[in-house]
């Protein structure tokens, strides 16, 4: 242990022989007056402070290792309580826990077995993110979004992922951003899909809003072939794509062969896909 961490640095420690007791009281760490105080990134013009030494305020009497274990336990209990109190799907109260489990496997190589048309399809890639009801798997040049209910099996190749502890993802953020989140939580978090997903879990229909106007491919149970087109609009239960020329010709041929249901007629070149029929969605990286 270095000298700085071995001694409090307080005025009561005048010599290097006066160390803090191992399990007893220790004066808080002393911050010299020469270290500037950022005043939590306040935008107000405060009076120039008089240089004064400051003292850290310990947040627990526990040793660091015991405190870390306690905080991990508290976080796990809080996640469980959030799941019970505000389930994403009334029929599946464990969905938030499933998302947190998948997020613990991020950046691992995974093999996902997807159920589509009562057939199993394998997708191999890096698990990039997990939302409230989907996972994002990145292949060499594509991003694939797979709904939870279509996942039959997921295997991760990185054995270290099994022991990943809870990470405080906002621990090292900029002080000004930290101030904004603390004082304007709803406004700041509501503008960021990443923060929404971190705190609450973002559903697939909201996540796809950032891909409006992009070309996507859709594998659904309602269509045997892949649908390719421009994402036009996204609702909670469905989304619409402007089919590419080749896809439009195939759709017209299919409509000529099959009887037209007037309730399911689409505008020229526009195709509607229900989220409950989606096997996976592909976007170029």
Automatic annotation (TrEMBL):
Name of protein: Uncharacterized protein
Organism: Peribacillus glennii
């Amino acid at each position: 242990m270095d000298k700085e961490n071995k001694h409090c640095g307080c005025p009561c420690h005048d010599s290097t022989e006066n160390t803090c007791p191992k399990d007893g009281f220790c004066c808080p760490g002393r911050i010299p007056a020469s270290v500037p105080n950022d005043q939590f990134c306040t935008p107000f013009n405060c009076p120039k402070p008089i240089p004064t030494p400051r003292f850290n305020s310990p947040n627990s009497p526990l040793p660091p290792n015991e405190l870390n274990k306690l905080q991990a336990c508290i976080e796990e209990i809080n996640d469980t309580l959030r799941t019970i109190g505000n389930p994403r799907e009334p029929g599946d109260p464990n969905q938030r826990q499933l998302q947190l489990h998948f997020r613990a496997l991020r950046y691992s190589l995974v093999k996902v077995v997807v159920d589509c048309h009562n057939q199993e399809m394998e997708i191999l890639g890096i698990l990039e993110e997990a939302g409230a009801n989907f996972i994002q798997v990145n292949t060499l040049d594509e991003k694939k979004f797979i709904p939870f209910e279509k996942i039959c099996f997921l295997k991760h190749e990185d054995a270290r992922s099994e022991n990943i502890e809870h990470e405080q993802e906002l621990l090292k953020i900029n002080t000004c951003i930290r101030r904004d989140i603390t004082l304007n939580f709803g406004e700041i978090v509501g503008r960021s899909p990443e923060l929404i997903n971190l705190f609450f879990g973002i559903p697939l229909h909201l996540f796809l809003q950032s891909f409006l106007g992009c070309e996507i491919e859709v594998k659904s149970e309602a269509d045997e072939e892949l649908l390719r087109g421009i994402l036009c609009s996204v609702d909670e239960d469905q989304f619409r794509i402007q089919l590419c020329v080749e896809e439009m010709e195939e759709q017209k041929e299919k409509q000529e062969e099959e009887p037209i249901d007037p309730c399911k007629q689409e505008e020229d070149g526009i195709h509607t896909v229900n989220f409950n029929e989606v096997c996976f969605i592909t976007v170029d990286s």
